[in-house]
Amino acid sequence: MRFHVLGTLEIHDGTQRIAPSAPKQRSVLALLLSSANEVTPTDVLMEELWEGRPPASAQTTLQTYVYQLRKLLSRGAATEEGPRLVTKHGGYLLTIGDGALDAVEFERLVDVARESLQAGEVERASGALRQALDLWHGPALADVVAGPRLEIYRTRLEELRVHAIKLKIEAQMRMGQHHELIGELKELTTVYTLDEWFHLQLMEALSRASRRHEALEVYHHLRYLLREELGLEPSSEMQELQQAVLASHPKNGRPRHGVVRAAGRP
């Protein structure tokens, strides 16, 4: 049995995709998965579901949600490796096997890619990042109503996704795939309009593809956005790249890499 949170919340039982139908029941499962193999205190679940205003029947209602989840998960409990939801003192424990949660597998692959990049194994890093990003099928927990805890978890996953995208672009730039990246980078600069890193890579890729005019347009557009939204000027690195493009050669004669910083680390 496998669990998916990188998109809509789903359970794959080996033959079909299933998921709790009640919104609060989905929230309970999502929160248990966010701390899988660790005890989730009852008061944390209460806060997530009712945000400090639990009804008089809250304890009974939560127990009902857990009971229904146990029935749902029992489909995968025929072996010792199957998921188990047990009551612990003051909370509940959802135990799942290695590789059963897509978010954990995603983080493992990103860690592999990061270590590979540091070791200069660029193709291995690129492959791991493709696998990691292929696990995503929409925004994290797209169909789950998130309370305070799940919102933090969701935000962390989304930040890690952006970090993985940056690592992938870094790897591709190192491999000289600037032509192939231009379309993707144009899309990313429209989604992350104030993320200077994506604009910098787009300028670099366009410059290397001998599209100097477009590279300069990227710079001027970002400068306008930064001034209007934040009252800031582009960074010194962006300004240096602009000057390099004007001088008709990319700065330093090689792609920028090693500039991606870890995001969303626990």
Using only C-alpha atoms, the radius of gyration works out to 23 Å
Helix-strand category:
mainly alpha
Number of DSSP-assigned strands = 6
- Count of DSSP H/I helices: 10
The H/E string reads EEEHEHHEEHHHHHHH
| Beta-strand percent range | 5-15%
The largest beta-sheet arranges its strands as: 1-2-3
Percent helix range: 55-70%
Q: How would you describe the shape?
A: elongated
- Would you identify the regions where 5 or more consecutive residues have pLDDT less than 50? 252-259, 262-266
Name the average pLDDT: 90
End-to-end gap: 26 Å
Main β-sheet, in a few words?
A: 3 strands, antiparallel
Structural description of this entry:
The protein is mainly alpha-helical and 266 residues long. It contains 10 helices and 6 strands. The chain has helices at 23-34, 42-50, 58-73, 102-118, 122-134, 148-174, 178-191, 196-208, 212-230, 236-246, and strands at residues 2-4, 10-12, 17-18, 39-41, 84-88, 91-95. Strand 1 and strand 2 form a beta hairpin. Helix 7 (178-191) packs antiparallel against helix 8 (196-208) and helix 9 (212-230) runs antiparallel to helix 10. The longest helix is centred in the middle third of the chain and has 27 residues, at 148-174. Mean pLDDT is 90; it is low at 252-259 and 262-266.
